[in-house]
């Protein structure tokens, strides 16, 4: 049985992506919507999501498609924002469902990790290197994920 592998990154608002990833003069408030058209999930560190308001969570839910997943570091089930009901998961940074990669990660090694997983896997770029993200996206296609 093949389990889904959801591609994402740690955060969507990276300064280096302002020109390299996001189209032209896209307003900052549209970035999450665009990000969600290119990725399946986003990992948010506790220091980011814990200072977010209920109105922000509602906007995030409205700005993303219903299958998009917010991975909230350290959140217990009772901590999950009601506005993201069914779309947020609390995970530790070292949760075995998370596979982290960066610009130096071996794709061969990563392929072995992906195929060895027996549940939904969240494949996350830790450094936001767009070139490596595209190589990993191609790897997922080749693996039929």
Please give a structural write-up.
The protein has six helices and six strands; from the N terminus they run βααβααβββαβα. The mean pLDDT is 95. Strand 5 (98-101), helix 5 and strand 6 form a beta-alpha-beta unit. It has a six-stranded parallel beta sheet. The chain has helices at 17-20, 31-38, 46-49, 54-63, 107-116, 130-142, and strands at 5-10, 41-44, 69-73, 88-91, 98-101, 121-125. The N and C termini lie close together (11 Å). Helices cover 34% and strands 19% of the residues. The chain is of the alpha/beta class and 145 residues long. The protein has one domain (5-142): TIM Barrel, CATH 3.20.20.410.
Descriptive labels:
145 residues, 34% helix
Radius of gyration: 15 Å
Total strands: the figure is 6
Please tell me the overall pLDDT.
Answer: 95
Q: What's the CATH H-level superfamily name?
A: Protein of unknown function UPF0759
Structural class: alpha/beta
**Main sheet overview:** 6 strands, parallel
CATH class category label: Alpha Beta
How much helical structure, as a percent, in the residues? 25-40%
CATH topology: TIM Barrel
Principal-axis shape equals globular
Secondary structure layout:
Layout: E1 5-10, H1 17-20, H2 31-38, E2 41-44, H3 46-49, H4 54-63, E3 69-73, E4 88-91, E5 98-101, H5 107-116, E6 121-125, H6 130-142
Parallel strand pairs: 1-2, 1-6, 2-3, 3-4, 5-6
Task: Give a short summary of the structure.
This protein is α/β, with parallel strands linked by helices.
